[in-house]
Amino acid sequence: MDFLIPEQRMCDVCCVPLNGYRGLTFGDVSYRHPDWEGVTWDHDAAPVPVDPQRLASICDFCSSGRTVTAFETVKAIVMIQGPYTNVFSDPWDACERCAVHIRRRTLHLLLDRVVAVLPGDLNRPQRRERRRELKALYVKFFAAEPIEIGKR
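The structure assignment produced for this chain is given below.
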């Protein structure tokens, strides 16, 4: 088991995969719902081990509920967000429309798609800021050499 990578968990209430964070100072682990634009969670995360029978199938890129494939990266992706280190090492689920851009390595078309379907009522500056944040993550995703592994 890698010390930096928190174990994968899902929410016992809504069956959505949770994001695991490890504190920089004490190494404490916490789990939170994904930070999806326009989505307000009506409950706190209730982390439990992943049950494949109950796990919700959600595109890790655009949040669509219809995934068709998954991509695994050769290298782990590490991002520091405030006091937490987020390590992305699990396969990334993708819907058909996002998968096309990932296979072709068309970063800007993937960003265009994801930003276009963001829920909520973000104004133009907010969309630009969200695109900038996603671009930083997706550049690291492509640099980590994603390989299509098929449906999980």
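Interim note for the steering committee: The radius of gyration is 15 Å. The chain has a mean pLDDT of 85.
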